[in-house]
Amino acid sequence: MVQILEGYVCLYWGDSGKGKLVDEAVERAQQQSDRKRTVVVRFQGGPNAGHSMYVRNSKGILVPFITHAAPSGLVSRADIAVGPQVAFDPEKFLNELNEVRDLFDYDGRIMVSERAGVLMDYHRQLDAWQESLRTNKIGTTLSGMGPFYMDNARRDTRITFADYVSDKFHEKLASVLDLKQLELSAAGISPIDYFDELIALHKPIRKELKPFAERLEYRMQEYLEKGNHIIIEGAQGTGLDVDMGTIDDVTSSHLLMSEGLASLGLPRKAFKIVGVEKIYPTRVGNGPMPTLDRGLEEMGENAGEYGATTKRRRREGWPDLVFVRRSAFLNDCDRIALTRADCLQDIEVKVCTAYLVNETFTEEVPFYLKDAKSIYNEETFKWHLWDGPRDISDPKLVDDELKSKRAAYIEQGFESLPTGLKDFVKFHNIFVGVPIDRVSIGPARGETVQTNYH
Which among 212, 240, 275 is the end of a domain? Predict the structure, then answer.
């Protein structure tokens, strides 16, 4: 039996299909029948991100499920863990846990790092207030990320999960509200009335979540040493990393896989790092994307390109291998998983292999990506996978018709794929320098074709 130790990180700006791939990794681990546990660990971000998955419930029916606060392993009955760098939303986490208990009879082990910061309602209100004051809107999800991570950095205004479930939570909350009194009042929040409201709201939640507090770095060492399977997932994508993303249009946390491994106390050498790349980049909200093409809007509409959290329409672009190559080496990726290859079938696909920045040709990602004009390779790629419904935004509607066609490719392997798609993969491997080891051709679990680079 093989111990599965993998980390999944998006190479663009998120919305790449990490949830599905993590779900498939869990399935591989659980199919080994080795009596080992499987844990999915989320290492950053908060409910501003969502993992969308289509899974079969206890009756075998394909149903959609989106996790925001909980790791995506929730739908696979795997153990789940929340790392110390996560903006932990206790209310949303408990709601998702209760929902999945009803749908899938969840009974896995749950662990929340005692060092994780707790996202409170005032973080969301402050986020909305700050965005309203900006002349140049960030396009924040209004989930409270900026104010939350500001409180973490200020230290004395941080509420950890250890604080949250302790008997001294009342004292800690009172102290934090007092320190934040001026900004809360400016945002229209009365700290005096608000204290009682928050205490009442969180009393039952704190009681139910208290057993899940863990010294997570030690638990991860135990999982590793006992041969259990560990699957690490990030939220959003590399392009939104607070330091290495497209500043100023970034999130407020660190998204690189090195951050996840370090914060969890896990060794890089033990893990396979998989960069997840949706074959066409998308962005929701503001932010530059050099290969943006409004001509792809119909494709995006058919593919259901709406934010899992905000439901806002995403913008679509052509494959940007300059950006992908940088993201791959920033995350030290061993392999790349290419997703949504089915969505681009029958379209002449252009590939960006350089930028023009201030009249200078470059294959490097500039600090200000908005200054970059995409330069496309002369060779284009086109493939046809199957005849069938053109609208694939809802897998439930096309599942029966396309299931057998997808299954044939999966069974016959990479060489059975259309020549244009195979040529794209080979070109991608040479340019990026990290091999693609799987190509997703459908949204459901298992609809992924393995390449020759396992």
Answer: 212
